[in-house]
Design goal:
mainly alpha; two-stranded parallel ribbon; 15 helices; globular; binds adenosine-5'-triphosphate; binds magnesium ion
Length: 344
């Protein structure tokens, strides 16, 4: 089997309300992976427009996600940080994948059903085909690993299905063009730790999300200490003190969520948090959680503000990153064109 050099790719949509789930489930992982991997981190603006975005706000949100990446510790000099629309190879490969993926595969994606809501007929075609573009984002760099939150698991499976079908459908041509027996790797998701699915602070059965109408449902990275403390104080919980074991925590989604958030912020696991807080009432645990959240998030929030005050500098970082990304993406797409039989 063909060996692929390890490469990490992931992205966040510039759709505003960047929240604690995005940070703990994705961005914090991005930062850690830099140490031992070549990483490509994208602000996926082409994905953002699958639902309506005001053009002025889209640019501001693109700056915000970039600022969050850098403020959290991503190094755009050693790795690659850029916005998706500056590298047109993503969209070109996505078209080819539109012709590889099957209608039935996409029809089974639960996120499309959630996002399209009751009136699927009115959803954009882009929202339906979104996962093909996501597969292209990853595979245009032939990335081997993708750190994401738990909600993206199904989309990563689809990415593997697309890679595999392309490898099968074009096998003779892949071999003829000197790429061994497969051109695309079967990418592995990295979904680990205590906060792969941070839940809404108002409803332990729903994931924390940018689009929840309630501001109290999420902590956003721009919240100040007062806002963080208030949202945690108002977070929905049950009336019992914290248990001393994971088994009892499992059946209490709101408690489980707050313990998971504490563990992820403190870089430990849920067991360690229970070892310290078993028997505590929420009236005691919540202030401790708020204090920890402020301690960890305030430096990021302050640095984001500083960076966003100079949007020209952020644009420069994105443009330089796009130049680096384009070199790799162009090489992949040139090979794909030869494999498919396009004259160039
Ligand atoms: P939207 O509702 O617009 O899709 P989102 O909050 O899901 O917004 P995305 O930009 O789609 O944000 O996702 C960026 C990354 O954050 C992805 O890796 C996703 O899996 C992760 N993520 C999103 N929400 C959560 C959450 N509640 N817990 C953990 N990870 C999350
Ligand atoms: Mg999402």
């Amino acid at each position: 089997m063909t060996e692929f050099p390890e490469r990490v790719f992931s992205g966040v949509q510039p759709t505003g309300n960047l929240h604690l789930g995005n940070y703990l489930g994705a961005i914090k992982k991005f930062v850690a992976l830099q140490e031992n991997h070549n990483c490509i981190y994208c602000v996926v603006d082409l994905h953002a427009i699958t639902t309506w975005q005001d053009p002025n706000v889209l640019a501001k949100n693109t700056h915000e996600v970039t600022a969050a990446y850098i403020a959290s510790g991503i190094d755009p000099e050693k790795h690659i940080v850029f916005n998706q629309s500056q590298v047109s190879e993503h969209a070109e490969l996505a078209w080819i994948f539109n012709c590889v993926a099957r209608m039935g595969w996409l029809s089974r994606m639960t996120q499309f059903k959630d996002k399209a809501g009751k009136d699927g007929e009115k959803a954009s075609v882009g929202l339906f085909a979104y996962q093909n573009l996501m597969a292209a984002d990853i595979l245009v760099y032939r990335a081997t690993h993708v750190p994401v939150g738990d909600d993206q698991k199904q989309h990563l499976e689809l990415t593997r299905d697309i890679a595999q079908k392309f490898n099968n459908d074009f096998r003779p041509s892949i071999v003829e063009n000197g790429h061994g027996d497969m051109f695309f790797p079967l990418t592995e998701p990295i979904i680990e730790g205590p906060a792969t699915r941070v839940m809404s602070l108002r409803d332990g059965s729903k994931k924390m999300s940018k689009s929840d109408p309630s501001d109290l449902s999420r902590i956003v990275l721009t919240d100040d200490a007062d806002a963080i403390a208030k949202k945690i104080r108002k977070a929905k919980t049950d009336p019992m003190p914290l248990p001393d074991n994971l088994e009892d925590l499992k059946s209490r989604p709101e408690a489980d969520n707050l313990v998971g958030i504490y563990a992820a912020l403190n870089e430990t696991d849920k067991e360690a948090v229970l070892a310290d807080y078993a028997g505590f009432e929420f009236s005691k645990f919540k202030p401790a959680l708020a204090e920890l959240a402020v301690e960890k998030l305030a430096p990021i929030s302050n640095e984001m503000q500083r960076l966003q005050a100079d949007p020209g500098h952020i644009d420069q970082i994105l443009s330089k990153g796009a130049d680096k990304a384009r070199v790799i993406a162009h090489e992949t797409l040139t090979a794909v064109k030869d494999i498919v039989g396009f004259i160039r």
